Amino acid sequence: MYKIKIILLFAVAMILLSSCDRDNIVNTGKNQNSTTGTIENESDLIQSYLNTPDLVGVIECRSEKRNDYTINWKNFGSITEYKPYDGIDNYAEATFRDATNKPITVENLLVNASLLKEYSKGAYSKVGPDKLELYFGVGNNKYYIECLNNSLLPDSTFGQVSFSNRIEITNIHRDDTLSRQNGIPVEWIGGYSNGYVKVEIRHTNPEEGAIGQTVGSYVMTTNTGAYTIDSLRLSLLSLVNIYYDITVTSYEPVIQTLSNGKKIILLGVSEYNTTIFLVD
Fold first, then answer.
1. How far apart are CA 74 and CA 81, in angstroms?
2. What are the C-alpha distances in Å from 188 to residues 113, 212, 244?
3. Digit-coded pLDDT (tens) for 87-132
């Protein structure tokens, strides 16, 4: 699986640079919400979160449930081997910045007892061999922030947050053969009921296709539990008779007010990925 991490988009947005989606992954639809405006991609969604007054940081908790294929390249890439994979991969990232977009350094940052380490000024990622535990639907996710050299964050902050049930596709399974002429109905359960879901189809093997070819398509939609990737959108894909990943991703922002009145967002990102064989 290959994707831009949400937290990187947050970091870029918070320093007022432009960041959008991967090359050759086309946005084939948009959702108009009368309250929040038009959300066409993750960058739009992130920007809506950044409107939170007194925001100084974002901690992303991402959990990916997979029913897909991993790819092994042999003989320097001349042979591609697909291996089935079933499991849950968890990630945690964070970024902290002040009102002028200057990075804020914290001395310690933990999510569910797993250490996040600074890899760039004001940006943090989970490190170490220990398995990161994240809880969706059951249990609380605990965090600890220690900041001794910047008054925008308290010296120490303990907090916890709960997220909705993880999102799961219910009507598509690994190795299903689907036709793009018929469209692809995608049905799911779970995810944040009041939020957005990204529905995406993309090449399983990023090495397939040539420069300029369309390798995927996505749409942002409200969480209604179903969305059909119609035949028109699928016709934009350059290749058939190959594997594609279908992914649904739910975003749940939880605002936490710190003891000094500043705010951080705990962003629960739940994702489900499966691999299908697409024919014409």
1. 8
2. 31, 32, 18
3. 999 999 999 999 888 999 999 999 999 999 999 999 999 877 778 9
In order, the DSSP letters of 11-61 are HHHHTT----PPTTEEE---EEETTTEEE-SHHHHHHHHHTSTTEEEEEEE
At 148, is the secondary structure helix, strand, or coil?
coil
Scored b (16 or more CB within 10 A) or e, 86-119 reads eeeebbbbbbbbbeeeebbebeebbbbebbbebe
Phi, psi of 122 (to 5 degrees): 75, 10
Across the beta sheet with 168-169, the strand order is 168-169, 184-189, 226-229
Q: CA torsion, points 197, 203, 205, 211, in degrees to nearest 10? A: -120
Q: Where are the alpha helices (DSSP H) in the chain?
A: 6-14, 42-50, 231-235
Tokens of 41: 């991609």
Query: pLDDT band at residue 15, thresholds of 50, 70 and 90?
Result: very low
Distance, CA of 201 to CA of 196 (rounded, Å): 17
Residue 212 DSSP code: T
Taking the C-alpha atoms of 31, 253, 54 and 220 in order, what is their torsion angle to the nearest 10 degrees? -20
Mean pLDDT for all residues in the chain: 85
